[in-house]
Amino acid sequence: MSDTHAHSVAFVRTTMLPEQPPPASEAGVVKWVRENLFKGWFNSILTILSIYFIYVIVSGAWPWFANGIWNTSSLAECRDMLDGMTGACFSVLTERWNQLLFGFTYPTEAYWRPTLAFFLLIVAIAPVLYPKAPRQLLVFTAIYPFLAFWLIWGGTLLTPLMVMVGLIAGYFAFKQFERQSFAMGMLAGLVATVVVIWAGGIIPASMPDVMALHAIPSRDLGGFMLNMILGTVCVSLSLPLGIMLALGRQSSMPIIKWICVIFIEFIRGVPLITLLFVANVVLAYFFPPGSNIDLVLRVIIMITMFSAAYIAEVIRGGLAALPRGQYEAADSLGLDYAQSMRLIILPQALKISIPGIVNVAVGLFKDTTLVSVISMFDLVGMIRGPILASTEWNGVYWELWGFAVFVFFIVCFSISKYSQWLERQLATDHR
Amino acid sequence: MAETANAPMAVSDEVAIQIQKMNKWYGTFHVLRDIDLTVYRGERIVIAGPSGSGKSTLIRCINALEEHQKGSITVDGTLLSSDIKNIDTIRSEVGMVFQHFNLFPHLTILENCTLAPIWVRKIPKREAEQTAMHFLEKVKIPEQANKYPGQLSGGQQQRVAIARSLCMRPRIMLFDEPTSALDPEMIKEVLDTMVELAEEGMTMLCVTHEMGFARQVANRVIFMDAGQIVEQNEPEGFFNNPKNERTKLFLSQILGH
Ligand SMILES: Nc1ncnc2c1ncn2[C@@H]1O[C@H](COP(=O)(O)OP(=O)(O)OP(=O)(O)O)[C@@H](O)[C@H]1O
Ligand SMILES: [Mg+2]
After folding, report:
1. Using the beta-carbon criterion (under 8 Å), do A328 and B91 form an inter-chain contact?
2. Among residues A350, A360, A373, which one has the least CA distance to residue A423?
3. Whole-prediction pTM value?
4. Which value does ipTM take for this structure?
């Protein structure tokens, strides 16, 4: 039976076509190779050239890896063993791994503490990163910062507990006064937090031995651990600060708006390294005399402010990309400012901003190595200073820097892969 | 439904919205001029007028999406002032449906409908979901509840937007050209929903160019031009016997073809 009456212009369909599966496309490795690598002569030449270059690089580097020596205690010994052959002295990594990871003054018997903190970090960020992780874990996420502080710095558990109590008090004060106005709530929360922490500070001070771990001063932190601490703390602080700055910049209250604009523009106009020098020497003047603010804390403040300004600008882009109708719909339903931001505007604006935020976060993580110029011994500082300057290992550049590159690459690549995954997860607008 | 046409159903003499000598400027541009309008409970008003005449601005002033500079607006006995509490109260009593739906794309249809009841009215989630399903059934798309707005057709989205407003149990509904972003075959499904709403006695203010809808359900048609109310009348008189020259011109243009 034919579908159409042939030879006439008028067309009437008499039978409807049944749904059919799409034609099975020819699959297989051969087809992929042919279509992607050898499509046309130009493509084929490029492919062959590329393969040749890869071959040259790999065949040059391979003996270096394969002959690598893992168990000597100095460069001279390693050179002896190699006896003129090309080969890497990876033994610098096996011999100095503890310095690379923890710095050279962190007590050896306390290595388990930051290590434990690192593994607990994975548990703590799971519910934040994976929406499907059990929600109860968020309680642990909230406790984690205090626990990690206690583990890494030691001292009595009462100190972080006091800070936690202060923040909880601040939260309740905020809830209490939020009904009057959001700004009142913020102010009350801040006052309550400061008062409780300040007044309650007597308790840990008077009982320094309750549940105490051996205290380790900040200047003893180092190695990749320091990069991890700075990276995680600064990213997690600069995101909320950046959101507040971005919202503040849009505020209809001129004072708030101008404070945010000036802050953002100032910070963006200054190189991070100068801010770090400021943290190192000048910042102490801004704190009350006599208060001895820890160098790591000062650096954290500076890096956080720096990346918060960038994150604020990224989020501002996200906010600007939302149609006005979203604000109006939220308003017309009677949602107040905080609700419409939290439930409607920010979820969408942040989703748009993910690539930009991740960009800043990755940049921030790499920039933590800049602290090596203000004589802190992070991974780069360790390599540049104590290790390369030692008589045993003076001259092993490739292995050490290769290690640093490898470690940073692993972390940053994972972050970027994660963000791509997250974007796919959040894609609900079927455009 | 011809028998319902122009039948003044359930119009009480209780005042729902009272606008007195209201003026609004955008910068120096005088958009609304001396607007006086009293809307009674249960009344259905259609606002028509050429583009740029200030129709949208007028109804957006009623729930304070735009602020006015002179005169007064009283909604349900609450005077609209710059007090945030007042504004939020009025907004939760007044539902609004937009030309471009403005659904929240990151939330499912059900979540779109339950969000405001849960957060503004503090209704328990389960109860809010039941209410939402009730209104989604009413607009005839309960089966879409767990989809995202982007997966629905325009007409369906607009019906969700209506359901979302209804979930707040508003006493007044504002519509700003609810059908003008829709393809012709979808206009009817949205208009049907609105007719049904009108028949239940909802107080409605509707900016629309659907004159058939106006004839069928409106108690009153208001014609605006250049920021003023130029003429208002019952639909019968408005369409058959317009008095003002501008109205005549407008009607001849809009009904002329
Ligand atoms: N935010 C604004 N700033 C300045 N002028 C505006 C703004 N919004 C609207 N206007 C102007 O106010 C006038 C009235 O606009 P309004 O949107 O109320 O018209 P309308 O009657 O709804 O028209 P339409 O049928 O095209 O929707 C128009 O001339 C418009 O250009
Ligand atoms: Mg309009």
Report:
1. no
2. A350
3. 0.83
4. 0.90
